[in-house]
Amino acid sequence: MDKCRRTSRTRVAAAVSAVSALGLIVSCGGSDSGGTGGGKKDGTVTITMGLFGVMGFKETGLLDTYMKEHPNVVIKADVAGDEQTYYTALQTHLAAGSGLKDIQGIEIGRAKELSDTQQDKFVDLAGVAGTDHFLPWKQSQVTTADKKVIGLGTDIGPMAVCYRKDLFEQAGLPTDREEVAELWEGDWSKYVDAGKRFKQNSKADKVAFMDTSSGLFNAMIYGNSQQFYDKEGELIYATNPAVKDAWKLASEAATSGLTAKLRQFQPGWDPGLANGTFATAVCPAWMLAHISEKAGPANKGKWDVAKAPKGANWGGSFLGVMEKSPVKKEAQELVAWLTAPEQQAYLFKEIGNFPSSQTALGLPEVVDAKSDYFSGAPIGKIFGAAAQEIPDEQVLGRKDGTIKDIFSQGLTLIEAQNKSPEQAWKTTDKRIGKAVG
User: b/e per residue, 8-44, with b = 16+ CB within 10 A?
Assistant: First the structure.
């Protein structure tokens, strides 16, 4: 689960109140048994949507644009500020078989659970016209064993490395993003090696090379087809070489004094961005908005973005249509339009949601995109290339988000409580067993 991603990547998210989240529960609860709130009356088609965080459709005016182009359509969108609140309500309504919206947002951390346990509640979108433009690995995340597609992709979170040029210069490391990328090209262990050079040569007191070892861990595992589960849904984290290698290298970074001992989006991290207490952060595309906001105007031009050693993805969402919707056809047409390449490119330009559409990655709004805050970095090309590197299949598990959080907590035991990697692994293993088993 990546609710932090949803509630912090832009100022708009911070403005969404708890009242909005509660509104999802109240308004959904008012639907007739088996209904979804939408319908047809007097030639008007009403489509309801349940969204969370800042998916962008309402905030950027895309829904208004669609209604102007389709005068007979009225779209009513409820947006919950907190994804956890949203998903709890969604589970309740799925179990009851009522109170749902015609269209429901699906966070990536929930995709496997819904695909496995609730696929009959969703329309199969595999045959919707004009939806063959998505990155292969994106749609694999919401495809069931019998090839049913329960959602169409919205955004993704390809990863790069955000770094402070001034702190790199003080440590005698290159500052040009191409040369920085060469420091660790093709191997995350080279990233750690660069950190050791930074620590040895840095002239800035109390400045760590990276914010947290868990960021490194996430980047390493999410560049592989399988992480915590195999295709049969069995837990494999304890034996998966990708997880073991990521734990080993992240532990090395933690025990070598390369981290600021922080957890992303937890207390201390935002001040660290503003005060320059660390020189790098592994950053998915959506994190740039948060960094620029929290680091503040004083640090504009000090940050830059370099290609990561290997492509990986953290985050993303989908839009699904409910099987009981009385306006299924119209809802499918709306979902296909909202997730079309042109709309995805528009959302990226407006609020930074990176497209999951392979076609959108080639549009000028994406390819030519640069970030003034991050020293003019060609973010469209950097993150677009990362998205293309990710394996075509991404195997998700029902409790991926929970397990990821537990691993982050385990690495914190090493960083903040001086536990050995072996002790922290045992604790992590036990916690996962209790939470998932």
Answer: bbbebbeebeeebbebbbebbeebeeebbbbbeeeee
